[in-house]
Amino acid sequence: MKKYLMTFFLIFFWICPVYGKHHVPTKKKTIPPKTVSTKTVEKEEPFSSIVVVEADSGRIFEEYNPHLKWPPASVTKLMLASIVMERVVKGSVKLTDRITVSKKASQMGGSQVFLKQGESFTLEELMKAVLVASGNDASYAVAEFIAGSAEAFVNCMNEKAKALNMADTEFHSVHGLPPSKGQKEDLISAHDLAILSREILKYPKVLEWTSIETDTFRDGTFIMRNHNKLLGKIPGMDGLKTGFYYSAGYNIVATAKKGDLRLIVVVLGSPKAKIRDQVVMERFKKYMTQYTIVTVLKKGEVINKNILIPDGKITELKGVAANNFSYLVPIEKKSSLKKEINLPEKIKGEIKEGQKLGELIIQLDNVTITNIDILSPVAIPKASIFTRFFRKIGF
Questions:
Q1: pTM above 0.85, yes or no
Q2: Are residues 306 and 385 in the same domain?
Q3: So what's the pLDDT on residue 47?
Q4: Which of 286, 320, 293, 315 is nearest to 305 (CA)?
């Protein structure tokens, strides 16, 4: 018995190490964490491109991908408005001219005012439909009226873009609809839209249309609602145009005015209308509160310094400013704008009306911004020889 027990224990202790080697749980392997890169990752912007510009001077406050070519969608209609108003100002067309709707115009899809072939409207009625309701049918009808055909009008659009040095722009439609099979897509950059917007602002009539939130069409039987939902939400907002289709995203060219300061904000390629509008609101709030336009001079303003005219019928003269001059400054820098008068004490001989007498030197923080001529507001002929003689001897 003892012999059997001894044999059993010998076999048991021989087996145990082997069993332990293969079946005893081992300590869990620790996997070191992945190394996190310290490289700064740029925050993705909620748009493809943006430009914020002061309308009068063209000064750029902010830009991101300004020359990225992008499909503008219905923002395309701003070029149509520019060409129409140019023709109106020149007198080749009138806003009261009547336009008969063609079959092609009545067949346009997308946003429309449901024009019917043979209907007749004034040019102004259709321009409201273009800029308030974003009517593609109205755009087509206007283009045919102005240039004879939509194709000819597209040529006018590209010629105008070239004349304005809009180098990132190519138009293939008069309305901005997605291209049909075999057609090319309209393309434009935020930079070029800022140029176009500044051109459009020369025509106050356009702002009169783009500031309309709701209007009627076709004798009040159709209600037009502006696609720009920022109207009424941003103080001073009065234009200009929105645009959307799937691959273009949500686009806008917005403008608003506070005092003498007018800003233009161009946003292209936002994923949602609300995101796009929030971006615009943030930019207006930011720059409208940081900057102001200071009117430094008005044309014809009297410069309060006398010049002696010893030979003239009148012996003293005050000049006037040759031009208006306003300047964009940070609000805290308003008091840093200074005017330095540079005039001679006297000028001999006669004085002609409009003659340059001297200049005003405009400075900001003691750095010269510009010089404005000081002109004579009147002509001053020479006094007679006797008058000049008696002046010299003290009479």
A1: no
A2: yes
A3: 96
A4: 320
